[in-house]
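Hi C.,

You asked whether I'd gotten around to modeling the 380-residue construct. I have! Everything is below, sequence then structure, no commentary in between.
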Amino acid sequence: MNLLEPIGWVALALLVWTHVGYPLFAFAWSKLLPRHIDAFDIEPRVALIIAAHNEADVIEAKIENALALDYPPEKLRIIVTSDASDDGTDEIVLRYASRGVELVRAERGGKVNAQDTAVRQLDDATEVIAFSDANCAWQTDALRRLVRPLSDSRVAYVCGRLSLMRADGTNREGTYWRFEVALRGWESKMHSVTGGNGSIYAVRRDAYVYVDPRFGHDLSFPYLMVKNGWIATYVPDAIASEKPTTDLGDEFKRKVRMFGHCWLLVFYGRMFSLLKLGPLYWIEMISHRLLRYSSGLLHVVLLLASIVLAVANGGIWWLTLLAQLAVIGMALVSAKTAARFTPCALAQYYVLVTLATLVALYQALFKGIEPGWERPKGTR
């Protein structure tokens, strides 16, 4: 019992830190000691790579969106890299060949494999590689704004802001995402971002790295850039928009897949090397990434400790136990009543995301994670 109490306190402290303490710390640092990054209007030669797997229903709109970007056409290559699409996606892309749109066909191997296949075919004139998903729309000035921080020779990776449209169903991803976007901005002003998003980002051609296709670029690229001596930053006014998954069931599957890639990075990506990351960015990675991925484990430890300690010691542990049961109860109420924007719906989202970290950990340890992906329902 003497050992169980400090274990419970540590689990509680780490959960409070990653969800509350660290965001406050990042906000304060970004205001008091912001890192300055130059951002001037530049027009490097850009290859915009759009990864697609069976996107026949949205690829035409995406290509038209890319062609409408406010950027010199002679300095922009638009490339759709097809991950063995068999629904007519490739045929639609080929209809745009006369307007300069290129098709690269890859064997089925997942998004990163498709992206790598396209990158290997770029010529030496390409200075910047930008990436986007097939189901999102960029604002007309998004690319121009996205490349501006690359005028600073220290910056190698830039991600824009993904704006999620309102979900049609029970998913509360938009509420969480607004918080995550704010935290990304604070991290960018502290040192570098710890994660990007696949809808809108760019990297210097000479900084591009080939990673395990199971890792994904969203989480591997920012920390690899920092390990290699660069800065990874965020541009809130380079905006892309897309629909989130409709319901929590679909979002849960997406989170399990995402956290599976996260755990692979932890186990095999040497993600938390102290010497290469530096102390401040290491704090960012531990606080925002490792502890966030470990939330499920920490909650299990805290719940079990709270049950035992509440019975044995009472006092604060009863309150801790009741607080956890209240969140679980609110989540169950939301699941039964399909509540929308209420504390119960947010509790349900939090519980499912926390559970997703545990399911993903199990799959990463015992079942393996595949690099391929199937597009979530309701996002097109």
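If it helps when you're writing up: The domain at 46-246 is CATH 3.90.550.10 (Spore Coat Polysaccharide Biosynthesis Protein SpsA; Chain A).

Thanks,
B.
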